[in-house]
Design brief:
- The complex is a heterodimer of chains A (820) and B (109).
- With 820 residues, chain A is an alpha/beta fold.
- Chain A has six domains: 168 residues, FAD/NAD(P)-binding domain (3-Layer(bba) Sandwich), CATH 3.50.50; 115 residues, FAD/NAD(P)-binding domain, CATH 3.50.50.60; 81 residues, FAD/NAD-linked reductase, C-terminal dimerisation domain (Enolase-like, domain 1, 2-Layer Sandwich); 75 residues, Arc Repressor Mutant, subunit A (Orthogonal Bundle); 81 residues, Sulfite Reductase Hemoprotein,Domain 2 (Sulfite Reductase Hemoprotein, domain 2, Alpha-Beta Complex), CATH 3.90.480; 150 residues, Sulfite Reductase Hemoprotein, domain 1 (2-Layer Sandwich), CATH 3.30.413.
- In chain A, the strands form twelve sheets. Chain A has a five-stranded parallel beta sheet. In chain A, strands 11-18-12-13-14 form a five-stranded parallel beta sheet. In chain A, strands 23-24-27-26-25 form a five-stranded antiparallel beta sheet.
- In chain A, α1 runs parallel beside α9 and α22 packs across α25.
- The longest helix of chain A is centred in the C-terminal third of the chain and has 18 residues.
- In chain A, 44% of the residues are buried.
- Chain B is mainly β and 109 residues long.
- Chain B has one domain: Rieske [2Fe-2S] iron-sulphur domain (Rieske Iron-sulfur Protein, 3-layer Sandwich), CATH 2.102.10.10.
- In chain B, a hairpin with a 6-residue loop joins β6 and β7.
- Chain B is globular, with a radius of gyration of 13 Å.
- The model of chain B has no long low-confidence stretch (mean pLDDT 89).
- The chains are: A alpha/beta (820), B mainly beta (109).
């Protein structure tokens, strides 16, 4: 057959460009080729658009195939022409103005940016970041003085756009739906470092941002989020993802799922039509990175020329193209029991490296701050190299292999006496060693107290401990400081101090800066960190719901059979006929099996099914009840006696004071539960002298007690002091609890905290120092503004409603009435 | 193997879980911080606690009743505790979650 076969290609992008190269290398004479391209220009390296936008490269520099190249290879180019229809029966493609018959057709239409479906997305000023036209539009917008841009999407593309626009002098805000940036390529720790870096460049990052609408008259002016935040915007760049551009294939009746479905040879459901690049789907996956697309191009060229070839999904690595940011990620870094994490964190230098090993092979790698070894790790990952020989030093990189194994203790032993160990306090090795010997110091706290070494930022703690080991041998037990959990070597006190000192405001920030050994903590440290952050940054920290124990997540107490108990607040233990009637109605309506009066003077409904909780709360809410926080590390009850209102011995209005304290203090989180009581006279019917905080009313005023216990331990209270007025009593109690909130370790009750810091110190700060007391009081009053939201009514109005329903019900017989 | 649709991946919060009710008992479906999905029997081997209500960390969950740590991948109790729950095959297709019909075979089998 003399006549050449006709090959038509729809789409003049990177995939088809590469395919043509392969075709001309192997069988240049086989086809008459017609190339349609929607853009009015030839083929360019689309992934280099970011440097073009940043002004670091010119467009000409990224062109890969220009008109001359197509000419030379006798490709008939129809650029600027969009193909509208494929007629498979006649084997002809149609565009608006022309048509082209084919023997073989290759669809390489790439992808379209996903424009999130919100009001205002059609306004002028809303653009994607997909082609050179978009780049030109963005550069033009940036010329305006004080121009502002909002980028929707904190993935690879969005961040590159944001960094480039910032370089043009625009004010840039990045809105990202997920909890950390680039969540598909990075874990939370690396995402945090990246966020910090970009924020340092003046880019505002807003994670967990749900865009509600784009506002503007005639053109975009601002972006509104679901939480009410409003960001002014002259342009809005949509970088929220891409979707395969498969429309013409769908219209032509080809098999299309997310993308055009192709087999291993890149052939679609029509044997004469192939598809390559971002528009197609292979093995259930749509690819968006360039390496697999190039592989597809190669396979398609071979298929067209009749040579067998098979496309196989390949590992790909990602690098962010923002000048000055070093970031590398490849492979799979999900946690699993048969995998090991090797993590290196150097917070001072902003370095985070994580290798995921399985059966002594690298399966995943995330590098931040220092990526020179990325290629080395990636090579091992692809080859499945056995790394057991270099397991110990692997994380330090290629240059550290083959040298003698690193013995850090020997390295410390070799340091000269005048080597500085603690940079903060200027303490050298000799001073520490001689203090240990001369004063017979055996604990880290002793060394801190006597030398100041490791007493500030704590980053030299490891070195100091090694010096102690060297000096004391077996006499030193480094585990004397109980770490928070297996994820860290730091104790609670160190963690709390460093959160404040370093201004750490998120859980990933704490884990990164304090060099956590696991990627996302555990069930011990996460609730503790969440509390510390809530306590220290009440107005800034967003509570991490998934780091709370189930009881605090669903605002009820889980029971042994998986049902819950519900305890509404009864201020000071006082109730009414209306309230009791409402409780009785709820018990009947929801068939609650058990009702009990608690030790804290209120009523517990036990055995409520989880699905019923919101409805139970709704009914209780109508009667005026709010959550009793009987599940919370927070204020539980203020038990009272009837006091001077009724009792012939009562000296003060103990009920009134109890209610006042409870109304002031409810809702705030504390390190452990807090139970209080107010007794109207020293007969102490409210049993105030075994509570966390208690008040005994006397004729001359109010005796304030604290640090009692009546649980695992039994302990009478200590007396803080006597105050004259109810106002004074409230101020002292609130200040005391705030001091406890700020200093105690998570799950440490007041009596244990008081023993640790000393009763005298507490009396000195709360009783004797009015300025300190007032400051504690004010800090509590400030933080309670954010805490006094009734969690029950929030959930009745729909918050977290997913918690209370199964996601699906399967396998039950379908009801005859035709339920879906 | 037959697959049954149970909902969208977005139905489950990161580091969270949802339940699927079946005549044989509840199944807990988890989503880890790394966006991996797992389905296991929602009954701790210790005292039957609802694992779906626990704190999810890495590919593990800590039971809310007595703090047993269960591997989402193998269903086995970790550390010194011994016991296991059934695990079920799960797959994600274009944002949809599908569970293996094995989940409907009697739990005691």
């Amino acid at each position: 057959m003399n006549k050449k076969e006709k090959l038509v290609i729809v789409g003049a992008g990177m995939a088809s460009g590469r395919m043509l190269e392969h075709l001309f290398e192997t069988d240049p004479e086989r086809f008459d080729i017609t190339l349609f391209g929607a853009e009015p220009r030839g083929n360019y390296n689309r992934i280099m658009l970011s440097p073009v936008l940043a002004g670091e490269k010119s467009f000409d520099q990224i062109v890969t195939h220009d008109a001359a190249w197509y000419d030379a290879h006798q490709v008939e180019c129809r650029f600027g022409e969009t193909v509208t229809r494929i007629d498979r029966a006649a084997k002809v493609v149609h565009s608006a103005g022309s048509e082209a018959p084919y023997d073989k057709l290759v669809i390489a239409t790439g992808s379209a940016p996903f424009m999130i479906p919100v009001a205002g997305r059609d306004l002028p000023g809303v653009m994607a970041f997909r082609d050179y036209d978009d780049v030109q539009a963005m550069v033009a917008a940036a010329r305006k003085k004080d121009a502002r841009a909002v980028v929707i999407g904190g993935g690879l593309l969005g961040l590159e756009a944001a960094a480039a626009l910032r370089l043009h002098g625009m004010e840039v805000v990045v809105l990202h739906l997920m909890g950390h940036l680039m969540e598909r390529q990075l874990d939370a720790a690396a995402g945090y470092l990246l966020q910090k870096e970009l924020e340092g460049r003046g880019i505002k990052i807003h994670c967990k941002a749900q865009t509600s609408a784009i506002l503007g008259r005639g053109r975009t002016e601002a972006v509104l989020l679901d939480d009410g935040t409003l960001y002014p915007a002259d342009i809005v760049v949509m970088a929220a993802g891409i979707r395969p551009e498969a429309r013409i294939a769908t219209d032509a009746g080809l098999h299309v799922e997310r993308g055009i479905v192709v087999d291993d040879r890149m052939v679609t459901s029509d044997p004469d039509i192939l598809a390559i690049g971002e528009c197609c789907e292979h093995g259930g996956i749509c690819y968006g990175l360039v390496a697999p697309l190039y592989d597809m191009a190669k396979v398609a060229a071979k298929t067209l020329t009749g040579v067998g070839a098979t496309f196989r999904s390949v590992e790909t690595a990602t690098q962010l193209k923002v000048t000055g940011v070093s970031l590398y990620s490849a492979g799979d870094f999900a946690d699993a029991p048969d995998r090991e994490d090797v993590v290196l964190r150097n917070s001072g230098a902003g370095i985070y490296k994580r290798l995921v090993l399985k059966d002594n092979r690298v399966v995943g790698v995330v590098l931040y701050g220092e990526t020179t070894d990325g290629a080395w790790y990636f090579d091992m990952l692809r080859k499945g190299t056995d790394v057991s020989e270099m397991r110990e030093t692997l994380i330090f990189g290629q240059s550290r292999q083959g040298s003698a194994s690193l013995d850090s203790l020997a390295a410390v032993a070799a340091l000269p006496d005048d080597a500085e160990i603690c940079g903060c306090n200027g303490v050298c090795k000799g001073a520490i060693v001689s203090a240990i010997i001369a004063r017979d110091l055996t604990s880290l706290d002793d060394v801190r107290a006597h030398t100041k070494a490791s007493a500030s930022c704590g980053s030299c703690t490891g070195l100091v401990e090694q010096l102690m080991t060297l000096t004391l041998g077996d006499k030193y037990n480094p585990d004397a400081v109980q770490p928070v959990c297996g994820c860290t070597t730091l104790g609670h006190g160190d963690v709390r101090r460093l959160i404040k000192a370093k201004g750490l405001k998120t859980i990933p920030a704490v884990m990164q800066e304090l060099e956590w050994k696991t990627s996302c903590g555990c069930a011990k440290c996460r609730p503790a960190l969440n509390y510390y952050l809530v306590c220290d940054w009440p107005d800034e920290y967003a509570d991490d719901y998934q780091s709370r124990f189930i009881n605090e997540r669903v605002h009820a107490n889980i029971q042994k059979d998986g049902t819950y108990s519900v305890v509404p607040r009864m201020w000071g233990g006082v109730t009414s006929a209306k309230e009791l009637r409402a409780i009785a109605d709820v018990v009947d309506k929801f068939h609650i099996p058990s009702v009990k009066v608690t030790g804290g003077q209120r009523i517990d409904m036990l055995g409520v099914r989880k699905e019923d909780l919101p409805a139970v709360w709704a009914d209780l809410g109508k009667a005026g009840f709010i959550s009793g926080h009987a599940y919370a590390k927070g204020l539980r009850t203020v038990k009272t006696c009837v006091g001077s209102d009724w009792c012939r011995f009562g000296t003060q209005d103990s009920t009134g004071l109890g209610i006042r304290i409870e109304k002031f203090m409810w809702g705030s989180w504390t390190p452990a539960k807090v139970k209080m009581a107010v007794s109207g006279c020293p007969r102490n019917c409210a049993e105030a002298t075994c509570k966390d905080v208690g008040v005994i009313c006397v004729d001359s005023g109010y005796e304030i007690h604290f640090a009692g216990a009546a649980g695992l331990d039994i302990k009478g209270t200590e007396v803080l002091g006597l105050v004259k007025t109810e106002d004074d009593a409230l101020e002292h109690i609130v200040a005391l609890v705030q001091m406890y909130r700020e200093q105690a370790h998570y799950l440490e009750r007041i009596y244990k905290w008081a023993k640790r810091v000393g009763l005298d110190e507490i009396r000195r700060q709360i009783l004797e120092d009015p300025r300190k007391r007032k400051a504690y009081f004010d800090r509590f009053a400030f933080s309670r503004k954010f805490a006094q939201v009734d969690p029950w009514s929030e959930r009745v109005s729909g918050k977290d409603k997913h918690e209370f329903r199964p996601m699906a019900t399967i396998g039950f017989p379908v009801a005859a009435e035709g339920a879906l | 193997m037959n697959w049954i649709a149970i909902g969208q991946t977005a139905d489950i919060p990161l580091r969270g879980a949802r339940c699927v009710a079946t005549p044989q008992g509840r199944i807990a479906v988890f989503r880890t911080v790394e966006n991996r999905f797992f389905a296991i029997e929602d009954r701790c081997p210790h005292k039957g606690g609802p694992l779906s209500q626990g704190i999810v960390h890495g590919a593990h969950v800590t039971c809310p009743l007595h703090g047993w740590v269960i591997s989402l991948e193998t269903g086995k109790a970790q550390g010194a505790d011994e016991g296991a729950v059934r695990t079920f095959a799960l797959k994600v297709e274009g944002g949809k979650l599908l569970i293996s019909s094995d989940a409907l075979v009697s739990m005691t089998a």
